[in-house]
Structures are given as structure tokens and as C-alpha cells.
Amino acid sequence: MPAMSEPVIDMLADEWKAISELCRPLTDAQWDLPTDLPGWSVKDNVAHMIGTERMLAGDPAPPVPEDALAHIRNDIGKFNEAWITPRRALPGPEVIAEFDTVTSSRLETLRAMSTEDFDKLGFTPEGEAPYRRFMEIRVFDCWMHEQDIRRAIDQPGGWDRAAATQSIDHLRSGLGYAVGKRGGAPDGSSVVIDVTGPIPRQLAVVVDGRAAVVDDIPTDPTVRLTLDTETYMALMGGRWTGPDARAQGKVTIAGDTALGEQLVDHLAFTI
User: Fold this and answer.
1) What is the pLDDT of residue 123?
2) Which of these CATH numbers, 3.40.50.460, 2.50.20.10, 3.30.930.10, 3.30.1050.10, describes 172-264?
3) Is this prediction's pTM over 0.85?
4) Which of the pair, 31 or 4, is modelled with greater confidence?
5) Would you say 43 and 31 are in contact if contact means Cβ atoms under 8 Å apart?
């Protein structure tokens, strides 16, 4: 039977609609505005989402540009650029029209899939997992790019939708890695992160041999970080750097200040 009850389908439909409504009125100048992602304009963000959905639909990838641009850091970057480069010369309205066409087709495909299809194990950016998990990652990725666009055009919003809640909770799984592996929190330490703003969260990581997210919040952590939802997402998503966020007063550190600064500077979890 078709998986009409899969919540992730509705989240994707809502997210893609929000992106379309946000981008359709943009001026030529707004389409070309730079975003927090190095080398990517507003238009490039939309082109990237088009490319990913075309790839998932089975469309062959265009040739990868031979000359790697300065902002390309790895093979994933080269793959993304293959879809983005052909669309850079296109007018914005043509790009968002293609986005609408591709996402509409993808929704038809998803709604025709069965629950068993969504349960099936396969490739995801996080390793082998059910197809459902891959689509949850797509919700996160698209919502993050919506926020990239919103910051570029100075139109904040999008915090009251299911995709926003799903996205902040999606990053919980990577917090242990960010604190322990990237941030270098020592054995025996504990970190509490108080996220304020539109989607408040209180998160805790304890290092006991390895860093892990815990449900029981330590009352006297080694480090306590306080930051708003946007800052948390931008740091974890690799959009902002820790030194910049600290210099702008976007993060409050209590406890071991040196370790706190080190953690903030290495919070980036996504590629």
C-alpha cells in the first residue's frame, strides 16, 4: 500500500512549498546575493536542491567541472558543483520553476511508495539506513538551505514548521561527535547546551570513555553554553565559525572558559 501516512512526505511537501513561496518574488539582485556557504549564491542553493532531487529521481549527473573552484573542498563539493554550474547563467525565475517541477515529481514518487519501500535499507549521507531516514535528512538539508536564503535576503522565518523542529532534533545525533571528537572534551567532562529562542532545547553530553548525549542534565557541568536557536543551527551546520559567533556575543560560556571556546570553535557537524 502507498505510504500516504509517512510524516516525512508531508514535511517535505511543506518545506518545498515554503522555499518556492520564498524565492518566487526575488529580484535578480536577490538571486545573486551571497550566502553563508562559501561561493554559493541564493540561486546556487536552489540549484543544489534541484540537483539532489534529480539525483534521487535517477537523472544522470552532469559532467563534473574540470577546474575545481576555490570553495570546493572535497568530492561531495565537486558533485554538488556539477549540478549548480549549468544553472548559474539561468534567470532566477527559471531556476525556481525547475525546482517546482522536480519537487512535484518527487512528491508523486514518494506518495506512490509503500511502507516497505521506506523501511528498506540503503545508502544515506549518514551510512546505511532506511530510506525514511534519507528523506528525514532531505528535510533537514532543505530547511537549512531555506535558512541560508533567508539570512541572505534578510527575511527571517520558517521556525514554526515541523521541518524546523525536525531539523534541530536531527543534529542531536551528531552532538557527541562534535563535542568529543571535534571539540576534544576530555574524559570525565560534561557539557550542557542551553538553546534559547523559537525552538528551545537543553542538551547534555557526558564524556565517559567516549562522548555521548545523555537525557539526565548534569547540575554542575564542566561547561555550559547558552546560545539561541539560529546560532546553534548555524554553528552545528557549519554556516558560522565559532570565533565569529563568540566575537559577536552570540554565545555565553560558563565554567571552563578555555574548553568552552574550544567546543564552540569545533561545533560544525555537517559537511
Assistant:
1) 93
2) 3.30.1050.10
3) yes
4) 31
5) yes
Contact 64, 57 (CB under 8 A): no
Q: What pLDDT digit, counting tens, does each position of 37-91 carry?
A: 999 999 999 999 999 999 999 998 888 766 645 556 666 667 778 889 999 999 9
Q: Are 30 and 150 in contact (CB under 8 A)?
A: no
Q: At 18, which amino acid appears?
A: A
What are the C-alpha distances in Å from 267 to residues 143, 180, 211, 227, 262?
19, 10, 13, 12, 9
The x, y and z cell numbers of residue 97, run together, are 520553476
Phi, psi of 252 (to 5 degrees): -105, 130
State the CATH class of domain 7-158. Answer: mainly alpha
Residues 110 and 95: their CA atoms lie apart, in Å, by: 22
Angle between helices 162-170 and 229-236 (to 10 degrees): 50
Buried b (16+ CB within 10 A) or exposed e, 187-203: eebbbbbbbeebbebeb
3-class DSSP state of 222: coil
User: Buried b vs exposed e over 57-67: b needs ≥16 C-beta within 10 Å?
Assistant: eeeeeeeeeee
N-terminal to C-terminal alpha carbon distance within the chain? 36
